[in-house]
């Protein structure tokens, strides 16, 4: 609105405004025609000759109007061109800074050998609960994890490295929503979860998402798709095999998660399905149960893993978010320092946080700050 008012007040002439809007409109039409030719070939799988004929017919007409608008360049048509370059510079700064931040994450991720060297306790006290560590990496352990355990003496008994990805399809089926795998041996209780959303999928609120996440991890444990000796691959620096697991509504013949208050538990009837439940607490707020199918049989190791997952879910879930401060490293050029330290940092401070950060409950959120020298 302010930009429109500034242009209108600055010109004070409808002819100049018409020249500016005319060049903008015809440029959009010309670019749309060129992109439409790609749709004809790549999406509709038509012949290249048909695409060329389409561009020649419509593009010739639009090119005549485009050339006529360029004649009026100095009479107001320069405004949309100048604004385009300004927005182009902003997008290039954002893309460059985001790319450098991701490269820093990839280059500084923690190796599996370092994790195995800490032992099952990870060298720290494991407290009750589930820790969700948000990361953009789909493999390896993010540097924010090592930064956290270096400065704090305790961590949760169950850790989930959560990566939320948007895929270029309208919808992702519920039965293909989660990709889950172990990180390291089973005794470490470390999981990697990749959640996939289409660009038209609606993200669930934190309560429904937590239920789907825990239920999917439980189904992954019950299915036993990853090999018990998967740690051998971890010594070579690779993650265990990832398994596609659906949401709770897709587990019709698998594990079902039930969360009840104490009063409801006492009045609940018997179930035909076997249950794994958490041990009684002095004053529990809620009780968590996994309803298991009668077959196939669950191994003792899987049952112990499910038991620990139940106890951790009852204790609560903590969202651990990384908050990075991006700075150009020493020795960088003046242009790079200007782009990273001022341009990109200004855009980050004035941009909306990721969707996972907005949906996480504030009472259970912990931000870990870290300086990225890119």
Tally of extended strands? 10
Total number of domains = 2
The rough form would be described as elongated
Question: Runs with pLDDT <50, length 5+?
Answer: 226-238, 264-273
Percentage of residues in DSSP E strands: 15-25%
Radius of gyration, rounded? 27 Å
Distance between the termini: 36 Å
Mean pLDDT value: 79
Number of helices: 12
Widest β-sheet, arrangement of strands = 5-3-4-2-1-9-10
What characterizes the major β-sheet? Answer: 7 strands, mixed
Helical fraction equals 40-55%
The helix/strand order is HHHHHEHEEEHHEEHEEHEHHE
What structural class should be given to the helix and strand makeup? alpha/beta
GO cellular component, one term: plasma membrane
Keywords: Ion transport, Membrane, Potassium, Potassium transport, Transmembrane, Transmembrane helix, Transport
GO molecular function: potassium ion transmembrane transporter activity
Organism: Salix viminalis
